[in-house]
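2024-03-11 09:14:02 DEBUG pipeline.ingest accepted 1 chain
2024-03-11 09:14:02 DEBUG pipeline.ingest length=227
2024-03-11 09:14:03 DEBUG pipeline.predict start
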Amino acid sequence: MKKTLQAAFLLFSLLAAQKLSAQNTKKDSTQLFSVSGFGYGFNTGKISDILKPQFSSNLGAELRAKNNKFFVMGVLDLISYGYYQNYSDETGNPYRIKYGSSTFYMLEVTPGYRFNGKHFSFYGFAGPGLGLTNLPNIEVNAQQLTATQVNKYTFTGSAEAGLGADISLGAAFTIFIQGRYMHNFNKVQNTNVDLFPVFLGIKSNISAVLGVFKKKAAPIIVVPVKF
């Protein structure tokens, strides 16, 4: 499902950018880019015994200031892991997941600064995040002799900082690669969660959308009528 959404969003971005880029975007104007990427959420330390990186994706938008240096990026990360439950989270329940799937749904809003070249740009960013962690658990019914896997969702906050690079493919498209350090404030199995997501993807120029909100309504002219 996540891969299907990723592919659909990427296709929509490409088609939209191709159409909208026909309208020239001035370099000294505010620009809006859609962001769509894929990668892995690497980790290190004790948490690497619990979370094993799997294919992940992100979707979002990047708003650049008129000078094309300052920007704000809002992105929803869907970071997936294989999950090993080393001990049960519930008192009195000795059963645990040997291997399952876990997903971090993280929304980050990060301001940043760009260093622009002719075809290459480098940027840094930092900011907060908020999201949900999905961890599988086992519920056992001793009377019915059944065991059911259930997903446990928990709200979490995060702080992150990262670096990235863009390769311009013209006014419409940019290929990007970025990596960052993300610290989650909630622990998993009493273990600190420090992640290093790395994403590769495409930014599509959809700045023409901003023009829709800047258009002024035509003035209403009242012509006096003489009797």
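2024-03-11 09:14:41 DEBUG pipeline.report The helical segments are 2-20, 208-214.
2024-03-11 09:14:41 DEBUG pipeline.predict end
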